[in-house]
User: Which sequence fits this backbone?
């Protein structure tokens, strides 16, 4: 618990998490607002989470990676390891705090987007009733939290902001969807890519076609996909923790 | 007490620290002296568990650093004053450190007061001058009121006032019975600060002794002798086991003897002396003499 408090103090005594949070909220909710305003007729629920699941997530991943890479950049990671020689617990505490904040941001952005769509288009049926609809909106926080774990792990491994951010953005925003272009094999590979699986968890099938992943032959259920996504995150984190423990700080 | 036993660190084929053994006792300032690149910082990082030794171990009061449960309460270290987030305030920096080792918040105020940073505690550490950063680093080291303190080149780049402040501060810490290890590549600085020296070069231990002993021994205590009867005096001195070297203008340079001894011998044998003067080399010369072969990066001077 002490270590969680330590990481909380560290995170909130600098400005970048505030800026990243604000940017993520504005971009996520803003995109939904633009869509809702530009749509003639009713806004479907499947349209409300494009901003949160496709755009704002990138900002949250960057925030999570920066939480680690700035420690390496300014060598405060060494001060951290001096104060807490058990590197694994220090880094796990950081991961938990960052993932929790990312999850919270995910819920704020998801329900904020939903709310803004309702305000802009009051006549639309945006009621959240079915489990698929709940997953679509409330699931965003889970995806953010797990995504943040991946970002922290990459941050620990790469140790520099530019490298970590580049890897995360190219991976999450480009690489996984580009692989789908490979004839025949592409969609088969995509069924096992982590962020595609995260989207699969959020998708409502044909009710949310904009989420991507259409045509991918998923072998897992929606919750199975989330579990797979989480499994990849944990595996990456374990590798990162082992590397951090072994290497000279 | 700090105890290094056969400490070795290899980076690929480069040996940064080579089978280094020494002890640092409480109650005095111990200087950790060596030219740039001698392996001082690497050794300090190994003492603090940041770098993993290739071989050997180092114990603090009998335990490796990584096995201390709340290490800041036992060991305080200032390795680099710039290890702070530039956009985090000095107080917040100390607050998370205090929290991590279960130290109360009033310790933060106490150490800020001790180093004279209370007035700027709310300012971001990135805007601090080198002297202020150094004080913040010392505040962090003192946070847990530790028995053992390590400082890596603490006076580097400071103005004379800052140097004097740090020197006095470290001596006071040692006088309180703490173990203080300070690294430096400047013997003149260490001569004023430390009472005990651990001297290394190219990662190897050159010597561990008191500062006075080190200076006496390495400056060589040679005595210049001029006399019209050198032919008579020379063999007498050699018989006593002193080393005699021919100098310029019919003079001798005698090492191993004091001027008193030589004067007595001359008088007892009726030798006329024209000059009898003890020669003291500078500290820098002594240091160069000892570590000359052990400098990692050489530049030929004046050739």
Assistant:
């Amino acid at each position: 618990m002490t270590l969680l408090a330590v990481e909380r103090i560290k995170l909130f005594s600098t400005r970048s998490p505030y800026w990243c949070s604000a940017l993520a909220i504005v971009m996520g909710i803003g995109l939904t607002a633009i869509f809702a305003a530009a749509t003639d007729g009713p806004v479907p629920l499947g349209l409300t989470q494009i901003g949160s699941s496709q755009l704002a997530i990138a900002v949250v991943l960057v925030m999570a990676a920066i939480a680690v890479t700035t420690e390496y950049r300014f060598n405060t990671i060494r001060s951290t390891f001096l104060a807490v020689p058990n590197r694994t617990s220090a880094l796990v505490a950081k991961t938990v705090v960052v993932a929790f904040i990312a999850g919270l941001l995910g819920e704020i952005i998801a329900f904020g987007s939903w709310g803004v769509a309702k305000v802009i288009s009051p006549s639309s049926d945006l009621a959240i009733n079915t489990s698929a609809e709940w997953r679509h909106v409330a699931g965003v926080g889970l995806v953010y939290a797990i995504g943040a774990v991946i970002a922290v792990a990459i941050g620990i491994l790469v140790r520099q902001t530019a490298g970590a951010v580049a890897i995360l953005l190219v991976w999450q925003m480009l690489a996984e969807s580009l692989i789908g272009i490979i004839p025949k094999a592409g969609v088969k590979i995509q069924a096992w890519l982590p962020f595609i699986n995260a989207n699969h968890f959020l998708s409502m099938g044909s009710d949310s076609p904009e989420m991507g992943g259409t045509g991918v032959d998923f072998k897992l259920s929606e919750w199975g996909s989330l579990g797979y996504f989480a499994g990849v995150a944990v595996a990456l984190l374990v590798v990162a923790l082992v590397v951090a423990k072994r290497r000279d700080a | 007490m700090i105890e290094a036993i056969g400490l070795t660190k290899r980076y690929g084929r480069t040996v940064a620290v080579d089978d280094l053994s020494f002890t640092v006792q409480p109650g005095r300032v111990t200087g950790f002296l060596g030219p740039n690149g001698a392996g001082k910082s690497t050794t300090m990082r190994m003492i603090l568990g940041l770098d993993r030794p290739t071989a050997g171990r180092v114990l603090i009061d009998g335990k490796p650093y990584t096995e201390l449960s709340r290490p800041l309460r036992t060991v305080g270290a200032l390795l680099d004053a710039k290890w702070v987030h530039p956009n985090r305030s000095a107080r917040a920096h100390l607050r998370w450190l205090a929290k991590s080792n279960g130290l109360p918040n009033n310790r933060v105020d106490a150490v800020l007061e001790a180093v004279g940073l209370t007035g700027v505690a709310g300012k971001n550490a990135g805007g601090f001058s080198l002297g202020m950063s150094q004080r913040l680093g010392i505040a962090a080291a003192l946070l847990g009121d530790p028995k053992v303190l390590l400082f890596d080149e603490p006076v580097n780049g400071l103005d004379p006032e800052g140097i004097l402040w740090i020197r006095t501060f470290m001596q006071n810490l040692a006088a309180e019975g703490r173990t203080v290890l300070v690294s430096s590549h400047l013997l003149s600085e260490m001569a004023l600060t430390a009472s005990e020296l651990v001297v290394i070069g190219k990662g190897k231990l050159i010597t561990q002794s008191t500062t006075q002993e080190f200076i006496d021994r390495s400056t060589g205590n040679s005595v210049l002798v001029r006399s019209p009867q050198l032919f008579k005096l020379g063999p007498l001195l050699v018989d006593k086991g002193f080393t005699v070297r021919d100098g310029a203008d019919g003079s001798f340079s005698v090492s191993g003897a004091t001027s008193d001894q030589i004067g007595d011998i001359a008088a007892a044998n009726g030798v006329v002396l024209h000059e009898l003067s003890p020669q003291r080399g500078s500290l820098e010369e002594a240091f160069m003499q000892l570590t000359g072969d052990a400098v990692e990066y050489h530049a030929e001077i004046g050739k």
